Amino acid sequence: MIQGYLKILRRKNFVFLWISQIIAQFGDRLTQMALIGLVYKLNPGSSLGLAKMFSLAIIPVFLISPISGVYVDRWDKRKTMYASDFLRSLCIFLVPIAVSKFHSIPLVYFLIFLSFCVGRFFIPAKMAVIPSLVEKESFFMANSLVSVTATIAAVLGFGFGGMIVEKWGVEQAFFINAITFLVSGILISMMRMQEKAKFDPKDILELGKDAIVKVKNSFIFEVREGLKYIFSSKETRYAAKVQFILFALIGSLYTVFIVFIQQTLSTGTFALGWLAVGSGAGLFIGSLFYGRIGSNISIQKTINLSLFSSSLYLITFVSLLKFYPYKLFAFISCFILGLIASPVVIAVNTLIHNESENKFWGRIFSSLEIIIHIAFIIFMFIASYLAEKFSPFTIIIAVGIITMILSYIFLREKPDA
Questions:
Q1: Mean pLDDT for the chain?
Q2: pTM greater than the 0.85 cutoff
Q3: pLDDT value at residue 223
Q4: Does domain 226-417 fall into CATH 1.20.1250.20?
Q5: Domain 1-192 has CATH 1.20.1250.20
Q6: What is the spatial distance between Cα 27 and Cα 183, in angstroms, rounded to a whole number?
Q7: What CA–CA distances, in Å, run from 38 to 136, 261, 277?
């Protein structure tokens, strides 16, 4: 296996892309920590403020992703990637200037939104270019190497990102973040590839009009077909139900938990970053462990047990932390929470793979992608609004109790019932 990795690392173009992605993934997480720090600076303790900021990263998934692939197929993929990185670098660089010089929050929102929109072009371009960098028999190892190292860089990005924001300030964090995208773009520009595609300014309007019509029709058709297939099967209907509840839970807790930690541990981003590292490590180790033993356990029992025990542990964890606010205890608890929760997503995806035909997987998973993003953003705003009226602690406990009840009663039902 090591020889296989060494073989693809001898390819200079792949190495440039690989290193650039390690840097960019670190930068992505640094962006998130800088945004948390910015909201904490401008409007401390506001769950709703965080929800508004994070929604700027989610909305482009609905607006840009359906049409970005159409452009990527027409344009030079290497140029698309480094142009995307350079534009993101510029947007992020201008954020602290918009705050300190112009004191314009709407301009900050626009720059953040624009950077995430541009990023939606990078992702399909990267996935489309990898097959041209390595031999066909190395596709799996190339994707595995990019995925694993990017995940490690992302997890570390949370930890060191929180440290950078806390120690050096939000403005410096954004400037460093801009440098990571700039370096990533430079590395990608150093790749030497032969592509016939050329950028034509006319493509932006002409291809855009055609793309919107085609994608609108195909998007509606594919989603309709995917949803129809999901709800025609009791097993996949059960899986979709679990996915919706899971991401509604994550959305409900996302901003509220951040504010709770900030208030309880008296921290802006430092502790948050390392708690994210702890939960990420727990998810990673838990996924590896479940991958070893998961085939011997009922998928539905796994989902029920994981959701119920995660909710119970969450309630216990935040209750103890409220009265005993120790950072080490919080870190260990987040690690354990990641371990307990890790089997859910794997189990749900496995259930879909087991109970559906592979020719429908694209439509099923694209439809589920829409379902989970809708659940996430709706419940994120609902929980954030309620947290402004009550308290983050109250909302976390309420969400935990509701999830325990659902996992015990609603999710306990058999898929074929």
A1: 80
A2: no
A3: 57
A4: yes
A5: yes
A6: 10
A7: 44, 16, 20
